[in-house]
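User: Assemble these into one structure.

Assistant: Restating your components, then the assembled model:
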Amino acid sequence: MANGDSTPPLAIELSAINKSFGDVHANMDVNLKVVSGHIHGIIGENGAGKSTLVSILYGFYAADSGLISINGQTTMIRHSADAIARGIGMVHQHFMLVPNFTVLENVMLGHEGSLSVEASAQKARSALNKLSEDFGLAVDPDIIVENLPVGLQQRVEILKALFRGAEILILDEPTGVLTPQETEQLFEILHALREEGVTILLITHKLKEIMAITDDVSVMRGGKMVAHLETARTSPAELAELMVGRKVLLEVDHTQAKPGVPVMQAQNLCLTTANGIDQLKDISLTLREGEIVGVAGVSGNGQSELLDVLSGITAPTDGSFRVGTSEITAQQPSDPAQLRSLGVAHVPEDRHKCGIILPFSAAESMILGYSSGDGQNGGWWLSPSELETNCADRMQDFDIRPPLPKLASANFSGGNQQKIVLAREISTQPKLLLVGQPTRGVDIGAIEFIHKQLIALRNKGCAILLVSVELDEIMSLSDRILVMNNGQMVGELTRDEADEQRLGLMMAGIGADDVVTASQMGAKS
Amino acid sequence: MADLWLQFLLTIDATLRVGTPLILCAMAGIFSEKSGVIDISLEGKMLMSAFAAAAVAALTSSALAGLTVAIGVSVLLGLLHGLASITLRGNQVISGLAINILASGLTVTIGIAMFQQGGQTPNLARAERFRPIELPLAEQLSSLPLIGPIYREVISGHNILVWVALAAVLFTAYILTRTRFGLRLRAVGEKPEALDSAGVSVARTRYMALIIAGVLCGMAGAYLSTAHGSGFVREMTAGKGYIALAAMIFGKWQPRGALLACLLFGFLEAVASRLQGVNVPLIGEAPVDLILALPYLLTVILLAGFVGKAMPPRAIGEPYVKER
């Protein structure tokens, strides 16, 4: 740096930021210094207050108190327009793109510069071309955004920020939806931006990303900043401990599987929508007792539909699958209740939509789907006291906090909501457990617990089909890994064969054999 | 044969006259709904402004003054809808329904208080109404084959608001596709967060849309009582606001589609009134009620799947709240 060992210029300085939502104190006296031209990471668990903090910086919320300085000048940021005027751009976790607009329209929206759309479009087009060349961010400006793959949609978000003259770029959990290769490309882009002097603030809960790309890192826990570190001088273990507040086991204790007899066999399952879109194409798989089969893939490539079909929520349009002695086909579809009685339990991907009912009490959420079952779980007359006693037992077994059966499901944290669902599904002693995104929006402590539970269940002989977009999770839990792309099974890898590189290529649609050849050639050259 | 041709031309002429308030309301609906605000209050706004136009025209003997006040009243109702559904984030359907009920009651109450005629306004004299504009040479050219009668019967002889309605279609299409405001309007109905994060106020954009919708509805109301009719009669909109809403959906929220749907509905109504009491061969007396019911039946049948799926703006009906 040019000015040697004097204090480096700060792009962002936040002092004593406070923000509350009702009773929740989301940010408590938060301080942050981001050096100009650095890539600065903020890491923390879900609900640690990271998103709130950057939303304040970008003018989405106003802080209750505290000071914001941009490039050494104290400023008020009341609206996003203020932030944009100060040279701050943001790439949101959920993209802020109008899906049926073109790339060009999205880029110029709110920053048209002229009353006539045509005149604005012309200016934006040439600016876009220049940005594409300068930073290697090529996107067709006339394509409709919803037709672009997620990686490119994110690129449009970055272009949008740069088009508005951003010198400080905030990225909120940018890699959640990307393949490893797309993540790699994103990091290259971020490096290129840093070369051009752009300051980058990267929000993530993934330790690996912090280690891979940032210069400095700040750790948040429970609404407070707990540490500011230089990335080169820290380690994932130290960061994890700071995030959670106690020592965490990052690796799962995984023993050799002892697969038994097949529990479910699926043959040539197909699912075609009414508009003729193939969501599942010729899926065949066998799940055996005592093994965890992971399904990897970029979200939206048919994994959700596979879970829906195997759990009986949707009927396949062709093909069949067999559970025990029952055969389920397009002509003889099943329903979730029947499959449940056959020993198939399901932890759905979206727990808010399908897993629990937010206003219901924990005790009520604990029997969803099992309310017509044996005396313990209901029947015609529900005995509230019995439900609550049952629920309290499971809350103890699964360390669900707070252990209050009467509390509304909505008032539990994400991790504890997930534990409610898991407790409900596991305690029926299923033969097959279908699990979707078991740790999405779950804090590290609970992740550790959930992973242990899944391994324990496998060791008791249950077959588990695990769908997750977190590759680390798939790789650390699975005995076999299937990869899906565009509704098809691209291939299968054993636990030992799987590494991020191979899985990533397969997730992009390149078959297992080709991947093996490619990596061998890579090794030779 | 010549008589049948003339009958046809007269029906087309009537289609335009009956279709005018539908077109104005449908364009108003496009503005509101493209911005993400459900607007069933088209009916109430039109009814209230019909009353305002007739009352003011009766008092001032000026149709133009009536129109101005009508627009003002309609815009105020639009702002009320905005206050309830944008600022206070209430339910848009209920807010619209409340405005319709308010209009239905208020017009009659004020009407009785002002004019003591059972809720009607006094009959307006010719000078107090928008009069037909005879285009030059309409009579002279009428002997020309084909073009002459079309010019005289269909094109000439409409009042200014008919032309304004047709211009409103071009205006709507232009604003939506060619202007900065149109771009933002379409964005706010699809993904308000995107507009907010781009630094543009969601509420302001939606209020602008509701104001424009108010202006158009005000003209529709004034047309009913001071151009097409000669005074206000209680409940004179008789569901036209809802038909316009249906036409807009039928036209897939597009100005051109909505125009065609309004003309189709107008045509059916014109045919029904032409056939009143006429004996049709084979059928006997014309089933006027059935023809009058056709717009509603058509809407249900066509929307149920014959015109492809109508894609409403994605964020419609949802008050914008910044997520936590």
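Chain B touches chain A at residues 177-184, 186-187, 190-191, 193-201, 314, 322, 324 (CB under 8 Å).
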